[in-house]
Amino acid sequence: MAMARTTIVADDALLDRLRAIAAAEQKSLGAVIREGLELRAQRSRATWVGAFASGTSDTSERVDEIIHDWLSRDRAL
Predict the structure, then answer these.
(1) Whole-prediction pTM
(2) Could you tell me if 31 and 22 are in contact, meaning their C-beta atoms sit under 8 angstroms apart?
(3) Taking residues 14-30, what's their average pLDDT?
(4) 64 is in which domain, residue-wise?
């Protein structure tokens, strides 16, 4: 997998937390940031297709309720 270098701007408190995670997990800061970016990309609205397995036949009738419930969950990184 090819990687590209980029620059981000983050406040010192966030960077300190990320550095602490990296140290605790014995990973590089870049690896921790990439993991966070991947998690954010996975929860993107573009990934909703197939994300709901209600097991019921009325899913299309309840789509607004199901999406609201899904969005209401704690989705913090």
Answers:
(1) 0.57
(2) yes
(3) 96
(4) 48-77
